[in-house]
């Protein structure tokens, strides 16, 4: 890691406001693949032997990241990112590194844009959670996926709190910059909450209606009242390259544990779906 990557996001400017903010979800991961396989087989656990932070991209995920790289190279210089922030989790970090390969762009790794921590549910499908944590599954059904915090993990609201902090610093430190952030589904949806002031029902409905695709771009540009959403889950880069567009499956109701997720739509289709 370079010294540039080690720098913090403390405010470095009195000016405020990004020229553009692009939130990119990581490419398909080995966890995404393992999640689908486990659900298809009705298994309680995913066949993974690494911690969440070390889950790598799948072959398709690398191709999707390369599609983003080719897309960026096709843009005029005045439309390319001028700064990049990445989650430290390998699937997001490697997506970012592939995407900006050969480009001289400041690159910062920040743990605050990492994936939501699923605590005791990490590595489990909703099937396993209902089998082994029946009471927690019921409690989640009562509380709802937005506010529910799994044992030892984070709720969506916990992720929103760290996103609000980093967003404030981004707008000061990177004033006038075109900033690209490579992150995860729950984190990107939390940016939407922080920027657009979405409430519980609105963010859950948005996530349910249009699942966030791997290597999709969610784009904000300045408007009359601050950053305004220009595109959500835009798969232009992947489409142009003719690569597969991948995202997680939804399983049923919006708020109950029986919707196929242990942790909410922001964690894709299971406790490990975003991996």
Molecular structure report:
The chain is an alpha/beta fold and 275 residues long. Helices cover 38% and strands 13% of the residues. It is built from ten helices and six strands; from the N terminus they run H-E-H-H-E-H-E-H-H-H-E-H-H-E-E-H. Strands 3-2-4-1-5-6 form a six-stranded mixed sheet. A hairpin with a 2-residue loop joins strand 5 and strand 6. Helix 5 crosses helix 6 (134-143) and helix 7 (156-173) crosses helix 8. The two termini are 23 Å apart.
**H and E order:** HEHHEHEHHHEHHEEH
Largest sheet: 6 strands, mixed
**Proportion of helical residues:** 25-40%
Annotation, overall tally of beta strands:
6
Q: Output the strand order for the largest sheet.
A: 3-2-4-1-5-6
Q: Averaging pLDDT over every residue, what do you get?
A: 88
Using only CA atoms, what is the Rg? 18 Å
Distance between the termini: 23 Å
């Amino acid at each position: 890691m370079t010294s540039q990557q080690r720098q913090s996001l403390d405010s470095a400017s009195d000016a405020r406001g990004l020229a553009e903010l692009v939130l990119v979800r990581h490419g398909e991961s080995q966890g995404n693949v393992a999640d689908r396989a486990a659900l298809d087989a009705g298994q309680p656990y995913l066949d993974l032997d690494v911690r969440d932070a070390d889950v790598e991209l799948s072959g398709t995920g690398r191709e999707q990241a390369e599609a983003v790289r080719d897309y960026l190279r096709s843009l005029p210089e005045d439309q390319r990112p001028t700064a990049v922030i990445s989650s430290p989790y390998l699937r997001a970090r490697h997506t970012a590194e592939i995407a900006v390969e050969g480009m001289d762009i400041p690159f910062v790794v920040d743990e605050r844009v990492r994936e939501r921590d699923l605590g005791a549910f990490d590595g489990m499908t909703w099937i396993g959670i209902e089998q082994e944590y029946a009471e927690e599954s019921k409690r989640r059904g009562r509380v709802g996926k937005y506010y529910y915090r799994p044992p030892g993990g984070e709720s969506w609201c916990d992720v929103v709190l760290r996103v609000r902090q980093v967003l404030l610093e981004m707008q000061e430190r990177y004033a006038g910059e075109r900033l690209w952030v490579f992150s995860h589904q729950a984190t990107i949806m939390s940016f939407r909450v922080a920027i657009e002031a979405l409430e519980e029902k609105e963010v859950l409905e948005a996530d349910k209606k249009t699942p966030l695709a791997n290597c999709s771009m969610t784009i904000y540009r300045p408007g009359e009242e601050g950053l305004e959403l220009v595109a959500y889950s835009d798969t232009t880069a992947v489409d142009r390259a003719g690569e597969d567009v991948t995202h997680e499956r939804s399983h049923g109701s919006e708020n109950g544990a029986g919707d196929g997720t242990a942790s909410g739509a922001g964690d894709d289709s299971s406790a490990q779906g975003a991996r």
